[in-house]
Amino acid sequence: MSTFTYNSEALQNLHIEDTTLLDRLVDFESARDAHLRKPRDKADKRTSLKEAVAEYVSDGDILFDAGFAYVRSCHQAYFEIMRQGKKNLQAIGAPTSNQSYMINDGSVKFSHNAYIGAEMRGTDRNYSRQLKEGNVTILSEWSHGGIAQGLKAAQLGAPGIFSKQMLGSDIMKHNPYIKTMQNPMRDDPDPVAFIPALYPDVVFIHVQVADKYGNACIYGPVVNDTAVAAASRKVIITAEEIVPEISLRYNRKGVTIPFIYADAVVELPFGAVPGNMPGYYYWARQWWEKLLRYGSTDKERFKKFHDEWMINTKDQFEFVEKLGGAKWIAEARRQTKAAEGENEDIDFSYQEYTPDNDTGLYY
Amino acid sequence: MKNETPANPLEMLAYFISLQIKDSTVVYVGTGLPMVAAILAHKTHAPHITMVYESGGQDPIAGDMPWSVGDPFTWRKAAVMQEMAYSFGQAAGGYVDIAFLGFAQVDMYGNVNTHHIGKDLTNPKARLTGSGGNNDLSSLTENMILVGLQTPERFPEKVDFITSVGYLEGGETRREAGLIGNGPLAVVSQWGIYDFEPKTKRMRVKSLTPGIPFEIAQQTTGFELLKPEGEIPETPMIPSDILDVLRTDVDPGGVFTTMPS
Fold first, then answer.
1. Which of A32, A141, A294, B163 is the most exposed place for a label (fewest CB within 10 A)?
2. What DSSP letter does each residue of A69-121 carry, written as one string?
3. ipTM strictly over 0.90?
């Protein structure tokens, strides 16, 4: 593997002494090597989520949180990763919200942060507490766009991108990777931020439909997923439905990830529960509110919530049962389709979860 | 009218923010009150704005209040959905006129903190969200408006962490750092709307919420607020018909406009 030059002010601010932890995120050669070694045949790559997690997630891996935190993100894979006791993972994404509940049991140990929390649902006090207790170490800080550009560079096959983002901010002073330099094309002073291409180790990309070879089609916001599919060393495609290859050739609506990137394919209906899966289910708003307004407030509550929903729920079907089963499925589908303008408009008002008002409803 | 109670501070804030939106502009919409304000403006004085969201949707057809910047309402029947990199890229390229950014702290040069309270990122008093798209928009859009509640802790002389650069250290330091766009146009709080003195780039009162004297604004600020020449104008109060639109049409569930209890 290559050796790298890091921003020493950032290393100091982050109290990082051992920089070998940082290397793999920007190591092009090992990523290219991993990609070169992937079998090229159109083989049936289907496997179970349990097997995919067991085989492709290694302790210490850099795990990318795909989708948009609670939109088309494979939460069920993250829960399975915890159930299998994977440890010391480096979390990265845009947002980086889902790492928070993975720190509790040591699955996530390191953060490359871009955004923690769930917007207006409430402050994520769990991450704050874990950070202060030393259960998670920050390796770098980013903006969403910075992460997006680093992945795009990898997808473009470029060593990096020159950006106009993050300049002058304290993010730069807490990011070992980004270098401020003069734009080599301009005569006048024009600072630019060099963002190296980023190579996560493993990513679970949840899509609406895929074929058994790994061609994966995304409907709705793509966010960073075509880029991270190209960049990551290991790519697991999880799909609501597995369709015949011919249907992706002729009947496609959306953006497709090529089969040659996929290491494994998992037929995983409800894989993105309790988040929103465009076309399939709206998010369980009250679940996120309960996570943040009840769970994150103190350690005991967090452990109770975490264990009930993530450790002691064996798979996505049991999860959906806890959310309300068939009634939840019907409501959530109706809600997302109405929001997307595919179904007749409905009333989106609902009973928000607060600790004083737990209706037990998740739709 | 749906409800006779007077506007609460968040509703007032949503209105003040919406006043900053000019019709026929491209508006980058962030989570929270900015989303409320953009939708309110769209339904009232600015029906021709194009809204852009960082999860990728832009120019959706109007629907309910999005529950998040990734909610399907943000890309409802959108003709175009950008990947995140291109959504911000178009801002850099000159296609986004204004962005609205929230803050946990803002200082006298309009620098924003959404990272943490305390001195050390690795061991803060409280860790907050981090940047999200806040820094990207502050770096790239032609103009930005900063939005948040005003207390002395939230308006310190220097923020604990610069998530997003406003005018950095004042004067020309923003431009010298290499950032594009004009920097913050205004800060909107429940007490007033503030702009920035053109040379020093220090925060200055532009108008005050009706009934609020300058002293209240100054007392809830951790640095010396500049005053404009002459009498300080009053920010227009939200008219009852617009409050009606806000409560009935824009955020009927009060998702973003209910005061925390």
1. A32
2. SSBSB-HHHHHHHHHTT--SEEEEESS-GGGHHHHTTTSEEEEEES--S-GGG
3. yes
